[in-house]
Amino acid sequence: MSFAPEPAQAHGREPQTPSTAVLLCNLGTPDEPTPAALRRYLAEFLGDPRVVEIPRALWLPLLHGLILRTRPAKSAAKYAGIWMPEGSPLKVWSEKQLLMLRGYLGERGHRLTLRLAMRYGNPSIPAVLDELHAQGLRRLLVVPMYPQYSSTTTASIVDAVAQWSSRIRTLPEIRFVNRFHDHPAYVAAVARRISAHWAREGRPDKLVMSFHGIPQRNLELGDPYHCECLKTARLVRERLGVSADDVVVTFQSRFGRAQWLQPYTEPTLVDLARRGVRRVDVVCPGFVADCLETLEEIAMEVRDAFLGAGGQVFHHIPCLNDQHEWILALTELVQEHLQGWDTRSPPDTAALAAQAERARALGAPA
Question: Which sequence spans correspond to the domains of the chain?
Fold first, then answer.
C-alpha cells in the first residue's frame, strides 16, 4: 500500500493556516439539477452500505440496472423546483453557516481553520482533508451536521474520514461530534424558530415535527436515532410550553418497500385534515439547513396532500439555516469539543526560532 505524499517539514516556521481545523459535514447535494448530475450523486449516496444495508450482490445490480436509470430524471425535476440562484439550497445555507461560525469563533479569540465538506458530492470529505493535510493539519474536529445520531448518517461520515486516514502517513488528532439532539442551545434555537413564527402567524391546531425516516430494522438492530428524535421533540415541546396533545411526531422520506419508522408524515397529515384539523405548522428539527426534503417534500408535496384532504392552512417553518441562535449554539458546541486544544494563543516566535536553530544543528535544511 502506498501513502499520500507528506507536506514538506517546516521547522521553526509558522504554518500558513492554523493547524487546528473544524470540518462541518453535511449529507451532500448534486452539482446541478440535471439527470446526469443526479445519477452521479445518487450512485454515491445509494451505493453507501451505511445507507442501504442490503447485501451488495443483491443491491448493486438493482441500483445500477433500474434505479439509476429511472430515478435521476425525477429527482432532477424536484431539485430544479427549489434550486436557488447561488446553487443548491443545502450548500448555500451550509456555506452561510460556515461563514458565520468562522466569525463567531474568531470574535472569541479562536485561531482555527474552518472548512465545509459533503459526504456525497462536492466538496468531498477526502478532497477537503487533502487540502488541510497539505497545509499542515495537526488537530481536526469533525462536526456532522446531524443533531440525531444514526448509523446511516453520522457513522458514514466517520467511515469517510477513516478511509481518508488509511492512506495518510502522519495523522492529525481527530475528534468527532456524534450527536447534539439534546444540547440545550440547539433545543433553544429550534424552539426559538417556532416561537418566532407563532409570534407572526399565530398558533396552529397542531405542530408537526417531521424527522427523516430510516428503516424500522435499523431501530431493531440498535440504532439510537428513533429515541433521539423523540427526545428532541419532547425537549422542544417542553421549551415551548405546549402540551403533548398539540404536537405530532412523524417520519418522512421513506424509500423502498420495507417498513420504516412510523408514523409516516404525509399519511398523518392527510388523516389530520380528514379529522377536521384546519391548520398545521410543520417543522423539521433533524435538518439544520433547508434542502430537498424540507423545501420540496414538506413545503410542496405534503402541503398539497394536506390541503387536498380538506386542510385549510399549512405552514412550513424553515430550518435553522442562518438563524443567530443556531450559530450561537453551533459555536458553543464546537467550543465544548475543542477543550484541551489551545486554539487561542498566538504563535510563539521565540520558540519557533529556537526550534529552527535546533533543526539546523541536527542537519535539517534551513
Answer: 20-180+324-337, 184-316
pLDDT tens for each residue of 104-128? 999 999 999 999 999 999 999 999 9
* Binding site as annotated, residues: 212, 293
Query: What is the model's pTM?
Result: 0.94
CATH architecture of the region 184-316: 3-Layer(aba) Sandwich (3.40)
Fold equal for 20-180+324-337 and 184-316: yes
Q: Indicate the fold that domain 20-180+324-337 takes in CATH.
A: Rossmann fold (3.40.50)
pLDDT digits (tens, 9 = 90+) for 257-267: 899 999 999 99
SS in 3 state form for the chain? CCCCCCCCCCCCCCCCCCCEEEEEEEEEECCCCCHHHHHHHHHHHHCCCCCCCCCHHHHHHHHHHHHHHHHHHHHHHHHHHHCECCECHHHHHHHHHHHHHHHHHHHCCCCCEEEEEEEEECCEHHHHHHHHHHCCCCEEEEEECCCCCCCCCHHHHHHHHHHHHCCCCCCCEEEECCCCCCCHHHHHHHHHHHHHHHHHHCCCCEEEEEEECCEHHHHHCCCCHHHHHHHHHHHHHHHHCCCHHHEEEEEECCCCCCCECCCEHHHHHHHHHHCCCCEEEEECCCCCCCCHHHHHHHHHHHHHHHHHCCCCEEEECCCCCCCHHHHHHHHHHHHHHCCCCCCCCCCCHHHHHHHHHHHHHCCCCC
Question: Residues annotated in the binding site for Fe(2+), as ranges?
Answer: 212, 293
